[in-house]
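JOB MANIFEST
job_type = single_chain_structure
chain_count = 1
residues = 122
[input]
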Amino acid sequence: MKELLLTRDWVCWADSLESSNKKIIQIDPEWNINSILKEILSTNFIPKISGDHATWSVADKNPIAVIAQEWNEPMLICMPDFPYQGTNHFVDLKCLHFNYHMQIDPNEVYKVLHNYRSASGM
């Protein structure tokens, strides 16, 4: 197991007073991004908001996925085997940051981040 630092935006002023926006979790170095995100979501690190329409994106240095409160699972922007353990494209994840996009349509957030990632050749 290895440590992974999680950071996130606060959703409101009260959240900044009541919650930490940092957390360290243990992950298996062999896990792919789906396994990592599943573990993170099981910790309730990402707060839910009333109305059930919070949109988040997650990134290391680049966009990885969009998470929507109304979706059952994240929509990946990266390849499913990320962080490419055992390949030339391996990324040793040390930190993931969760960006809060309020109630912006998660499909729109996905389109923008997917186009950014594609245009930058990632």
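[summary]
The chain has one domain: 2-119.
The mean pLDDT is 90.
exit_status = 0
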